[in-house]
Amino acid sequence: MKKMWMSLLAAVAMIAGSAAGYAAETSKAEPVLLPGVPDKNWFTDYRQALARAKAEKLPVVALFTGADWCPACLQLEAEVLSKPEWKKSVDGKAVLLFLNFPDKKSSWPKELLEQNEKLKEHYKVEGFPTTLILNADGRTVGLIDGYMPGGYWPNNLSRILAALE
């Protein structure tokens, strides 16, 4: 009987250690660069982005996009996301999450495509690009719906992020 309890305690300790290890591993995870992702600073895994946001006490900028087919998304990439000014404006102020809905579905892992569909439904995203600012618990605290040229998008994002500081 004593041996059985010791085995049970050891199993519970292993499971708890694994869960703690996973949480630490997730918060240290680095973004993975996939086709369409602007640069290595963008996460594609929702759980990893939230874990990093929680660890660094930052909001998440979650961009829902059709990076290889959506005209407004392509314009956002060309006019904002590829610019050094953009990178400076968000560096250290937010965790970036790229939720792509590619035309060429074979270019993205199936698990991420499924994750993105579930998130699109969960957050009731109806068009692209849609940018949600989330807290580290995944609750929406800001929204930029669509894209408008002339600084509208980055100015709104800067205003939202400043309000969260």
From TrEMBL:
Taxonomy, superkingdom: Bacteria
One Pfam family in the UniProt entry: Thioredoxin_2
Keyword terms, alphabetized: Signal
Domain Thioredoxin: 23-165
InterPro entries membership: AGR/TXD, Thioredoxin-like_fold, Thioredoxin-like_sf, Thioredoxin_domain
Signal peptide: 1-23
Name of the protein: Thioredoxin family protein
Protein source organism: Victivallis vadensis
Lineage, highest ranks first: Bacteria, Pseudomonadati, Lentisphaerota, Lentisphaeria, Victivallales
